[in-house]
Design brief:
This protein is an alpha/beta fold and 948 residues long. It is 60% helix and 6% strand. It has 43 helices and 13 strands. The strands form 4 sheets. A 5-stranded parallel β-sheet has the order 7-8-9-6-10, sandwiched between helices. A 3-stranded antiparallel β-sheet has the order 1-2-3, with no helix packed on it. A hairpin with a 2-residue loop joins strand 12 and strand 13. Helix 29 (653-676) runs antiparallel to helix 30 (680-689) and helix 39 packs parallel to helix 41 (881-897). The protein starts with a strand and ends in a 16-residue tail after the last helix. The model is unreliable at 249-262, 294-307 and 936-948 (pLDDT under 50).
């Protein structure tokens, strides 16, 4: 399974053509640095500087180690790839030619050493590796410098390839490409000379001479110099029609022939004055045209990530103007007005008659019947190399009658619909157009407002880019407003856009063709009533996306019906489905939907929100039951879900974990929504459902956040001592895990007081249990044992044998910490017996770990390893990675005590990878010290602070 890496575009890895998940952007930057220096060491400090520049995060080395650990795991299935730590830093070892950049350089070097016949395919293959701007979306100084150097390499290769094609007489096909390159690099004399020669050979001598004069003027104005002797000599050769400039015979590249038409229509509107990015999409259209050269083709451009305003028409016109010369028999264009804000869709008879007139059909020859007119249109374009641009189509039915029958024509269609039927019936090639990334968005603003104005207010520009969320129409509106008021700062406009409820007002310049509300409204009006209603309700949903079952509950629909309506919204590009079963809206589309929702009756909105919150609460409750069993302390008594809400029930613990992983961000957002709408019980109940997931996955920042929110809700709820005690208890635990012991003890003291006032025996027991843990972490084992024994006494007054087993293990653990191993073993063995009689297998994992620790410290190392191995299996089955890391570290100590350094190193390294991923810096530092000292005699140390 060969791994291939891409740097010439987005940073990516692929295995047998399929993308490999190598993490978020910053982690991919680490991979990119190692790939640039493939098979060479990169110092850790150099990695930090290159990836973060002068803005590294706190504890950056720990973050870097975590990224490297996750990259090792992602690339582990490629035996030919390895990331290793060396004395001088880190090195990624693989075949250099598996990296597109190094393959590009190799191909270019081979092409430059070969003759023209061999060089052409090598150079074409090399340039074909480029998928766009190198390291797309990375905005760090070091990457910017490397990107500029690589762009210079690419330009040099393109110019060499142009020379090669000029030598072999391919000047006609080269002319459009050279025109673009020369415009982009107006002071490059070599490019200017190539373009002059191509123009001359195409019979456009006057244009060639004009290009020379333009270049001479630019050189004088920009550099204060005259053209170099080589360019001046070429100029003289063109003036005298030097036979030495005659081309070599060019290969035949035409795709069809026919009688020259009497009329060659040139209907393309003017190209966009400012065009940014879209390199990948333009290359896709180029490839589609090349692939269809022998049979014609239909290219469909569809927008995703927003309903309109994404730049489909601009892309179509940019591409069409770049390739006019490939359609010498003319270009037809019509705006079908499929989603026009003010007009009805263009009637087919009007379009056909307009095309017939443009094609020079004599009025007396045009039949009255529409079908006959369409047949005449097809006859007039048959055999002619023409481009037909059908802009803003509503659906496939509007397009089909206008498709020519001749393979010599190419059709370009833009639409907010996916036109799936056109793909199925006519082989159309769909191209999905997304919103701009931050870099392209800034370039667009700079292109319209001028680089100095944009550079003067970088923070305001960042805010404008964020508020427009990459939608080109929104960015264009912002630029137009700023250009109309040059005396005003961009910060003022950014402040206006920062108010979400007014953002669509700020993006209204009074023109229906450039009004976001009008654009979105046109798409909304085209929906069926049921889909339109779902669209509005989706504007209420918080979080980055929404699942199919959650959307069904939000709208009180059966899942099958919700799926069909969501498919309609996806086809209209009002939502997108990046992951199967999960849907999301563009930020500005969401604002529009929420705006429509505010016009609905309050009762309708409140009931929809209740269904959404109840869906997440009841599903999370069921999922937590599978992770933690029926014994989680302070279990809430939930009210029945709202009518129309249909929570799901995960099948097993693994399914529950997958659900929590997918819904985690949404659960946090739903909890905030519950607080904002005054649903206080659901706030702390949602926090409760996340206890096991947060602790097992070591999601400490989120653990702390949800309980701070829960405490706010409990305090606002009035006289609610139990929720307040619960919130203080969990906040105390979260503060303890963060090492904030004094704050933890303060919260736990308040929790215990509230539980005592409420005469809540179970609550007192749980809080005393946690107090024991905190005092242990604080270093006072005697006081920790005191609280553990008090908790055990309270648990023994309750009818819950699993809670008793948990605390027997905790008391045994504290005895072990104090060196009282016989007592420790007695308590832990009692706990194990209770778990095996009354609990689930996973319940016993922590006690097995404790017994392993006791066996280790009493010299029974083989028994210790057996206990640890049993615990590891259970922790992994339960996805408790935090406890898994602790047990691996303990197991390493036992291997070391048994003089097994290789096994000790392996266990410590696995523990370290987990600690780094969990950002447990103290534990990771401890393990690194053990690894560094592995070759020296060691005395087994006390186990790291953790949970019994």
């Amino acid at each position: 399974m060969v791994l291939e890496f891409g740097l010439l575009g987005t940073i990516e890895a692929r295995r047998e053509g399929h993308a490999v998940d190598v993490g978020h952007l910053r982690q991919r930057c680490v991979l990119a640095v190692l790939l640039l220096e493939v098979n060479r060491e990169v110092a850790a400090d150099a990695l930090v500087h290159r990836v973060w520049g002068d803005r590294p995060p706190q504890r950056v080395k720990g973050t870097l180690y975590g990224y490297l650990s996750r990259l090792r795991q992602a690339l582990a299935k490629g035996p030919e790839v390895a990331i290793s730590r060396r004395p001088g830093g880190y090195v990624l070892e693989t075949k250099p030619l598996s990296v597109d950049l190094h393959l590009f350089r190799d191909l270019v070097a081979r092409a430059r050493a070969a003759d023209d016949t061999q060089a052409a395919p090598l150079m074409r293959q090399a340039l074909g590796l480029w998928r766009g701007e190198p390291f797309a979306a990375v905005d760090v100084p070091w990457f910017h410098e490397v990107r500029q150097a690589l762009e210079r390499e690419r330009l040099a290769a393109e110019v060499d390839y142009a020379d090669l094609r000029l030598r072999t007489g391919r000047h006609s096909e080269l002319l459009p490409e050279l025109t673009v390159l020369a415009d982009e690099h107006p002071l490059d004399e070599r490019l200017a000379g190539q373009l002059m020669l191509a123009l001359y050979r195409c019979g456009r001598t006057a244009d060639a001479l004009t290009r020379y004069q333009d270049t001479r003027r630019r050189l004088a104005e920009g550099l204060g110099t005259d053209p170099a002797p080589a360019l001046q000599h070429l100029h003289q050769q063109i003036l005298t029609a030097d036979p030495a400039l005659a081309p070599a015979p060019a290969p035949r590249t035409t795709v069809g022939s026919g009688p020259a038409p009497a009329t060659e229509p040139r209907q393309l509107p003017a190209p966009p004055p400012t065009f940014i990015g879209r390199t990948r999409e333009l290359e896709y259209l180029d490839a589609a045209l090349d692939a269809s050269a022998d049979r014609g083709g239909t290219v469909v451009i569809s927008a995703i990530g927003g309903a309109g305003g994404v730049g489909k028409t601009w892309l179509a016109l940019r591409w069409a103007h770049r390739h006019q010369k490939r359609f010498p028999d003319g270009q037809l264009y019509t705006n079908l007005r499929g989603f026009d804000a003010a007009e009805q869709p263009m009637p087919l008879p009007t379009v056909v008659r307009g095309f017939l007139d443009a094609l020079g059909a004599a009025p007396e020859r045009i039949p009255e019947d529409l079908d006959a007119q369409t047949a005449l249109y097809r006859s007039l374009v048959a055999g002619r190399r023409m481009l037909i641009v059908l802009d803003n189509a509503r659906d496939a039915d509007q397009v089909r009658p206008l498709l020519p029958g001749s393979p010599s024509c190419t059709v370009l269609v833009t639409s907010r619909s996916r036109l799936t039927a056109l793909v199925a019936t006519h082989g159309a090639r769909p191209l999905s157009l997304d919103v701009f990334g931050p870099d392209d968005a800034r370039h667009l603003l700079a292109g319209q407002l001028g680089a100095p104005r944009v550079a003067a207010e970088p923070e305001a520009v960042d805010a404008l880019v964020e508020h427009c969320a990459g939608l080109p129409l929104a960015l264009g509106i912002v630029a137009a407003r700023a250009a109309a008021h040059p005396e005003s700062t961009l910060a003022v406009l950014a402040e206006e856009l920062s108010r979400a409820t007014e953002r669509l007002d700020a993006l209204d310049i009074g023109d229906l063709t450039a009004n976001l509300r009008a654009v979105f409204a046109a798409s909304h009006r085209a929906l069926t009533p049921s889909a339109g209603n779902l669209f509005v309700l989706l504007g209420l949903a918080p979080g980055p996306d929404i699942s199919l079952p959650a959307a069904a509950s939000l709208a009180a629909l059966a899942p099958a019906r919700a799926r069909a309506l969501l498919a309609e919204l996806v086809a209209a590009h009002l939502v997108r489905q990046d992951t199967p079963g999960r849907y999301r809206m563009h930020d500005l589309v969401r604002l529009y939907a929420a705006e429509l929702a505010r016009s609905r009756p309050d009762r309708d909105i409140e009931t929809a929100l209740s269904r959404l919150i109840d869906f997440h609460l009841h599903t999370a409750f069921a999922a937590n039951r599978l992770l933690d069993g029926p014994h989680t302390p302070f279990e809430p008594q939930l009210e029945p879900p709202a009518p129309g809400c249909a929570p799901v029930r995960p099948a097993d613990a693994a399914d529950a974990l997958r659900w929590f992983d997918a819904e985690h961000e949404c659960l946090l957002a739903v909890q905030s929504l519950a607080l904002a709408t005054g649903r206080h019980p659901q706030v702390w109940q949602l926090a409760w459902t996340l206890i096991s997931y947060h602790q097992g996955g070591y999601h400490l920042p989120e653990y702390r956040t949800v309980w701070r929110t829960a405490l706010t809700a409990a305090e606002q709820h009035g006289n609610a001592p139990v929720p307040r005690a619960l919130a203080h208890w969990r906040l105390g635990h979260a503060r303890a895990l963060a090492g904030e012991h004094r704050e933890a003890l303060e919260h736990l003291g308040l929790a215990l007081t509230l539980a005592e006032r409420a005469d809540d025996t179970a609550g007192q027991a749980h809080i005393c249990r946690t107090l024991g843990r905190v005092w242990e972490q604080y270093g006072d084992d005697e006081r920790a044992l005191e609280h553990a024994l008090r908790a055990l006494s309270l648990y023994q007054r309750l009818d819950n044998l699993i809670w008793q087993a948990n605390q027997l293990n905790a008391v045994g653990w504290m005895h072990a910490k104090l060196g009282r191993h016989p007592q420790a073993r007695t308590y832990c063995e009692q706990a194990l017996r209770l778990y095996r009689r009354h609990g689930r297998p996973a319940d016993a994992a922590s006690t097995l770990d404790s017994l392993g620790y006791i066996a280790h410290h009493t010299g029974r190392h083989a028994q210790a390893l057996d206990y640890y191995q049993q615990a590891l299996v259970l922790f992994r089955e339960h996805s408790d990675s935090a406890s898994e890391a602790d047990t691996l570290a303990n197991m390493a100590e036992t291997h070391q005590a048994m003089s097994r350094p290789a096994l000790a190193r392996e266990a410590w390294q696995r523990a370290l990878d987990l600690y780094d991923a969990q950002r447990r810096d103290t534990a990771a530092h401890h393990v690194r010290r053990r690894l560094d000292a592995l070759t020296t005699p060691v005395v087994p140390e006390s186990r790291l602070p953790g949970r019994p």
